[in-house]
Batch of 2 targets.
Target 1
Amino acid sequence: MNKSIKTITITIIIGILWTLLSAWSISDHQFGNRFITFDARSFAMGNANVYNTGSPFAITTNPANLTLLRARYGAQFGLNLTRNEDNRSIPLYNSFDAYVYDATYNSDIFVYDDYSGIAFAKMNVRDNLMGLSVFHQPMINYDGDYYEEVRNNRNQDNDNYPEVIAKNQIKNEGVLYQSGIAYSWGYSPSQHTDLHVGLSYSMLNGKANRQVRINWSDWAVNRMASAAPATTLPDSLFKVQTELKGSRLQMGSNFTLNHRLGIGLSYTPKSTLDRSGTQKIVHGANTDETAIDDKYILPSELRVGFCYTPRNVMRTTFNLDLERISWSDVDPAYDDMYNFYVGVEHHVENRLPLRFGFQSQNTYHSYMESHVVDDVPTDVIFARKIVTPMFTIGSGSQLMNNLKWDIGLGYAWRTYEALDLFRDRYYNYSQLWVNPQYINLRDRGWDNPDKVRENFVTLSTGLTLTW
Amino acid sequence: MKRIYLLIIMLVGLCLLSARIDLNSAGFDELRKLPITEQQARDIYEYRLYVSFFRNIFELRQIPSIDHDTLLRLRPLVVVSLFRETDEVSQRRDEIRDLLERLDSNEGASEGMADVWEDFLMTPQNINRMHFDDLISLPNVSPIDAVAVLNRVARGDTLTDMRSLRGTPGISYYGYSNLRNYVYYKEPPVRNRLFVDAKIQYVTRYFEESAQDMYLEPFLRNTYQTSLVKPHRKDLAYWGYFNLEEIDPNIYYKLRMRYGNNFKAGIMHQMGHGETGIQDKSSRELWEDSKYYVGYECSELFNTSRTYVPDFLDNTQLKLYLGHYRATFGEGLVMENTDFYSPRKTGYGFSKRILGITPDLSRTQQYSLRGTALELKNPWFGAAFFLSQDKKDAIVYIDANGDPVQVNGKNKVLSYVTPTIRFDNDTLREAEAYFNTELAAGVPYAIPHINLAPRKDIVDEKLWGTRLQFSPIIGTKLGFTTHTALYDDAHFVMPDWSALRTHIIRDSYYYPKFKMIDTEISSLYSTLTDRYERDYRRVTGFDGHTVIGNVSVQGEYAELTVDGKDFALGDDPKAYLVSAYTQFENLYFLALYRHYDLEFDNPYSNAFAENERFNDTIIEKNVYTLTNPLMADIYNNTSQAQPEKGIYFETRYRFNNYFTVGRSYLDIWERMSDNRRSARFQSELEFRPLFQLALRLRYKNQVNRYDDSADRGVSKTNEYTLSTRTFLSNRNFLEFEYRYNTVYGPPYTSLTNPAQPGNNSHAAAMTLMNGDYICVNYTHIIGPTLKLQGSFVYWHGNNISHWDWEDMEIDFMGEKGLKSWISLQSRISQNMYMSIKYRNKTYQTKELFIRRYNQPITTNNYFERVERSENTIRLSLDYRF
């Protein structure tokens, strides 16, 4: 690789190399945004649906839900809209209680949409039930955007206009689609006692692209061109385009103990996907392109939960799931983690449901840092846990005899620290800055990282047709 | 012949009836035989299964698919049998549901007392056998009410029902209405059986401002703002080093089991923000950090019907506990173990103490007692013995390597501490070593390394205590309490004034900030001084209580053994408190006098006080001057009263149905450390023209240093609050509240300085700050099992701290901002409850320090406001059966 290109590459990407596959949230965990379900009812109940008797999409969480469904035939269509707000500030610490804390230096809001569909059929043979389902849904979304402007330090408090020096942009695109088939067998010796076992196999296909771009403004280019000595400011581009291919197996079972309580369990083994593509770095007239051919691992998941339907003045359903994600499948740097999901549905009046729930998901944000180990500079990967709590609420309506519409809204938030996405040393041209004596353009490391505050508003809605 | 006809008709009728289908017992297949569709049959079946049994046939219309014609068609074909699903426990729980919810909502304040009261609500005590202490430990039951009940029982009367309780001479309406739910008369409402209460709570909580400031203080090499050699680095403060910015939920698990009121067991674990999770703890750590107990209680230890058992042993109670327990006696001067401070804890009204030994699953960790406790009592005598061995957290003198400094072979300790985060010692040592590299490179007169630091479980404390009580007549008792804490591996050492400040304060520039009020720190108890060396701390005291007519007088005197003898009065630091209470039907009046010596340092006391210990001292006000900011937790989480003396009056008077003077009080007190005198007054008038509407006006006034207006410590606060409370139909509730405050204070720089460099000397005599606050609260009962609550608050502080009693906790708010929260409380089934609360608080605060980008700050400091936004969620799941 050309030496200058290498330097530039390091400058641009050192902070983002380990977030190559991020989603919605630009500095999200390495594995994009994983959809739990496209079922709006389950979503409104905190995504707790490992034992679910009414929603076809629950088959994608636990294939044994297929024969548990009450209807014989059905289809469901789902839409998911997510709005991500990303605020970044620099949490500085100085003498006693005067610290810069939440002064946001950049704020972005973007909205993303995804769609899915599922169909199923079920038949009874005496006490036995058999079901078959096909589905197509986004499994992981890699979309994500970030935009910031680097502005001059021209005493804004005196009403001066701070010129744009550069525009920094990150654009991630991609979805990993899951197209699969699920089979389930159930045995129901009596009305409220049954056992179901299910299996699903799905093909995973998708792409995950990332583009990081720094464009100098005309003002900056002209200023440097007229400076002495004249300097050219070439734009930079870092582009990764990858395709993901693989398959996924999932198995599950449900056990209805009585008319009140059902227990569900699903297990998804680790999936290893082939990732192939190119990585391209462009800096002015220089271009460098390398091929990518490696593996992408989805960790194994184990989810257990129950559904409880008591006798209550307002008809009530309570679901609670606990999930173990074996992040250690991906890398020993990660610990396995537990997520939990809980939700309630009350029929307030005449089948008008009010649903609410809560989920707490643990994910990882990984980053690379250079450390001297035995006198040798070594890149060390660090993994930090991020907790994302979300509360949800929703309702639904029976539009026609066989047609149901559901809606769920979720609000999630999180705060964490992250390395500066665009390192400051890149802009270290003193001629560009109106007050260069007040600026010290060196890279901010972990001794002074970004504080990131994000919130997500998610709308999940869908139609269910059963008969 | 007529008889035969009649018989035939009856038989035919019976046959017809028996041919009818019973809606409350028919299976799905039977229901399908009715002239309805399969879906309708399924709807009927599921309604019965998941909503309710049918009380009458017309309830079928509750089912959407059953129309009027179907009902008429079904009417001759079905019957509804009487069916009741609820057992006595569910029924009892339904009866007391509101009270249980109220107790749960006070969990934060009452710290474990709610557990005891909840048990008594579910399985009440026999009012005819209760003791004086049992009665006065219940909320809002006064000693006069207790004596009224006991006198009546002593006369040979048996209270047989609620009406007979109300008719007891001398009992007040408030006493009766609060007592009635905790007692039974003839037969208990619930028979003895196994009761289980399991609870999980998940809370993403923000630290209180004082704790946040403490963790944010950096270790920077500096010479008081003249130079900062390093750029601003987050890793040089505990906050940045431990990544406290990230969401890290508090998770609280609790499981209690009991068989009736006899056999009890429980376990609790709390994982706090910033602390190690359960999955990462060794079994030993898990054991150390959890709380648990097993216990046995017997309300009739001796059977006096047997001839060899003397009569005076009648009605003797026994309590025996292993594990964690609470011990509370008298006025809490000698022993009331809790980590939590609550101001003006009078022991009356809702501000109660539960006297005696009780099991403990509260969140108290530091002053918890773990061991064995035995309590025996009857109406005349009482005795309790308790032993505890538990490791306690403390601020320890450490050397440059982070090891505890030894003195006479023991760890040298400054003070107990209740840390906001219980960091592991190894983790703390690593952090300190990291900070020390910065301190070591500092200027000569700054400390070269951290020399005082908190350490988890560093003091192995063995504690024993005794309580003896004699009650010669009803409502009169004399008690003696003592406890001794033994320290085998630690010496509490308090150096002289000048040596202490060099330990506590980071450099000489700040030494003048060590003031007279800081004698509270220098007066902390030492086990090693120039005069003596010992390995214990002993507190001894006696208390008394008597009720004469409708006047109750009670008090306690306690001494900490320092130089004098254990049982000689007046030769050691002392604390005493005496109160008198009288009540009439619509009025009560309380007067209380307390006096706590400066050197009376008993960590197990939790008596009445206006302020907590170390309030206003350097560890509260000037955290940035401390050698180690974590020392501020000595103040942040103290449960001890500030040394003070003063007199307190409280009253409530209900004129008539329209006007009530709510709880009103006047407190005049003097701080012992610097003789600062203060007064605080609060009164409330409620006008209720209709039952559904109440208007309230509240006024509060507080003056600090009222005797010397020239002193810098003077401040005058006025607070006016107007609220309207509307009680809507279906128990919905709407409230509007407006509050206006003014505070006169000394001229602090942050208030009077223009935002220009070099203006630190602006002249001002007094500063007037004013702020206001508007709040709307709404409760909506969506259904019998679902409740929605919400609140919206907007405030404008101007440096005044506003407060808001929010659902379960008090919240303090500065500057200006808005806050809203919503909570959904759902009763999932008769045994299961879930609640979710979400809160957003967006406010401005003065934290922005304009600076050169990525450069150290030099001399130009500007304060500006910056917006913060906080999201909080609380999920609570409770399962009881």
Target 2
Amino acid sequence: MTTNLLTPAPPRDEAVPAPPAPKRRHHRPLGARVEPYLLISPTVLLIVGLMVVPIVIVLGYSLMDNTITNPSPKFVGLGNYLTVLSSPAFWGAAGNTLVFTVVSVAAHMVIGVLFALMLNSKTMAKVPRAIFRAIYILPWIFTASVVAVLWRLLLDPSGVINYLLESLGVIHESVPWLGLPQTALIAVTAINIWSGYPFFMISLLAGLQGIPSDLYEAARVDGAGPLRQFVSVTLPGLKPILYSMALLDLLWTTQQFTLIWATTGGGPLGATEMLSTYTYKLAFNSYQFSLASTSAVLVLAASLIVAIFYVRRQRKEER
Amino acid sequence: MSLLASRSARRRVSARIGLYAALTAGALFAGFPVLWMLSSSFKSNANIFAYPPKLFDGSFSFAPYLAVLSNPVEIGYFVNSYIVALSVTLVTLVVAVLTGYVFSRFEFPLKRILNVVIIGVQAVPPITLLIPFFGIMVGLGLYNTYQGLIITYVVFTLPYAVIMMTAYFNSLPRELDEAAKVDGASSRSILWRILVPVSVPGMVSVGLYTFMISWNEYLFALTLTQTDDRRTVPVGIQLLMGQNNYLWNEVMAMSILGSIPVLVLFLIFQRYFIGGLAAGAVKS
């Protein structure tokens, strides 16, 4: 399970649309009028004090020469942005993040659809379906810190995956998957694929059950085979879920820190450096808090772009 | 005719075999790593990389678990995780219930803006907040304290919790509280006596979500704590991994122990989890 902040949207009747309360404010005593403000004050304090203010602070840091370590930082305008945006390390991390994210999201989608279809198969009895579903959800139970140590064990040069691949003749000598620059990015992406697909699968499973079965019947009557039914009935039915999930996953995966940090630490030779680990290292390994803040603001900007697409999508569906 | 029937029957049988073959392959992909973690957690450390690897070798014992559970430092990680996660769950629930109630039953200026802010902050990446949080927590004297971690996780879980509770209250008929209001009940007693008792399912979902996020969080636990007496399980696992020349069996045992609370909650409250998860993407 991710620890990210953006979570699946709630049932749709959530946000604002409470019918307007009858307007007879002048009848109500002062106490009743301030009551809602009193009740929401903890939320307002927390969200403003520890979400809005920190964002303003990080924006401020990004415009200063080094903060925190420097007792009297000076305003340097967009200088830090020029430094970060002209740094090959930043673009290396951005490129790795892009590959890691795009491959992860695509694989989550394919595996999620495949497993959901298999679990939804009409020919399966209830008990095996429940057992398989439980097994398929398993990776979702484990937090990134656990997933990381587990896969370090599996992918160890003398570990079980190397043994299996060697026995199958896929490789001829054991490969330190997480230790080689050529294989490390593939390895962490594979780990992330394993740990992230159940989230897609569960949502898609619910989505599949929402597709009316007479649509399939109509398709069958028209002579559509299984593949045709999948393309013309299943996929269109799942499209809104797939789109929303893909955007959420995009947002989460670009923010993934723990899995990378606890498997490769961004190495070897920066082969798995992500924007999150790059930013973290700038701050807490080299104490370049201003440059780290700049990078953090750039990550925020990228996330907001994806988030805007997500919110627009949700709005469209509510209509 | 009978030839045709038997052909289609045969096709059905082979489709079924194909399905189960695919299901088994998928189950190996999903389950084998977990099975390997489980089996490794019972092995002796000398046998972890035995060649050829065996799922169950002769060295089965509970020793790795006993080693973890008899180590005061490691027990401390669990205690810290429970203190933090349970406190966060309690605080987030109370605050979210109050806010959800107001959002659902009152109209007031700024409501719209507040709503947009609460939805919007969910997209803020943790790494963006990390540096200012570090500064703020040090400044407030909350670095390396339970309170620092608790406040952090409350802020992280609150937006979603508020949205969920608002949705839950919106789904309750207004006649419930209108009747009480006519009888002269105050808003507070309407909330606690009438709405909260019928909102238990919504609160369970929010509580589970909050507990899981707090129990599993790593980045802020890593950055905002410094000493073993405040560190949580996900950080503890990494520390155990880094020291003592790779006690793989103990690391795996601790990973299993650290995953048990979430597993147990999942098994008990499965439908709430799946409901909450699926609610995100499913649009009726």
